[in-house]
Amino acid sequence: MILEDPDEARAWGVLFALSLRGDGTISGRVTLNKTLALLQRDGFPIENKFITKDRGPYDRLIHLDAEDLEKQKLLEINEKTTKRERPTTIYHLRDEGLGEVHRRYSARIESMPYQRIFRAHLEEIKRRFSEYTTPEIVDKVHHELLMDIDEDDAHREMDDLVTDLMVAQDEAETDRNRTCFICLNLLGSLDFAVTSLSQAVKRTHNTNSSSKNLIYFNAKESLYWAQKLMRHEHVRYSRPGEGPLAGFREQLGYRLFCTEGLSGRYEIVKPIRDELSLKQYIETVPI
User: Fold this and answer.
1) HEC per residue, 128-186
2) What CA–CA distance (Å, rounded) separates 268 from 199?
């Protein structure tokens, strides 16, 4: 079993990704890479560090992890001959692997915050891979992560987003009430999005790290939900998920959670640990 494997924290993602499919099967290394990249982008504890290869997120360790899991009889790997030059790699989760997912990782997933949103994104990921062909999925993922355009153009898009985030941050600061928890959420999330994306672009310049692309997506989503909270009615105290504009606050908090996970994993900036720590958060300190 993978209990004592030092790479368990990374390898578990392969089992989890396979468990999302009704038949426990994923066809193709590209599809497996894209599944794990989408899960990581959307906040699941996927420990891989993706690079951009062939204009898409890729980690060579994914297949190596799958081979190790096959040796432990948790999954099967087969090759299917196709008309293409290379055969397609077929990954299939064995009953032992599914049992390992339930026994070891179900509680881990259920203990994550923002359960309603996470489950919705799981369903979206499953739907995406059941309704679209692999080339369509590749195109969608590459477009969402700015991997389908020239690197210079992608950097301009990221710089423009940082500017938009800073404009929103200034607007929120102008309307700020120091005792309002919605203001606290709004300003903390925008500040972290600005810092994370700016640092990711700076730290990964002239590298193929996918961190800036993954953070870009979440920063863009953060701006979308932040704009829905602008000019809100100030409230002195409101627990997460309660009070006015709770749905927008939850979505913004979720994207903050995703961004901090990515920022920590790729060693971009130190993450905020939870919503309450926003109270002490003034500026992000680079790792």
Assistant:
1) HHHHCCHHHHHHHHHHHCCCCCCHHHHHHHHHHHHHHHHHHHHHHHHCCCCCCHHHHHH
2) 6
**Which of 262, 133, 275, 137 minimizes the C-alpha distance to 210?**
262
Going by C-alpha positions, the residue among 90, 70, 85, 272 that lies closest to residue 190 is 272
What is the per-residue pLDDT for 1? 38
Whole-model pTM: value is: 0.89
* Percent of the chain whose pLDDT exceeds 90: 62
Give me the amino acid identity at 59: D
DSSP conformational letter for 215: H
Cβ-contact 254, 43 below 8 angstroms: yes
Lowest mean pLDDT, pick from 2-11, 39-48, 81-90: 2-11
Distance CA 220, CA 158 (A): 9
Q: Is the pLDDT of residue 285 over 70?
A: no
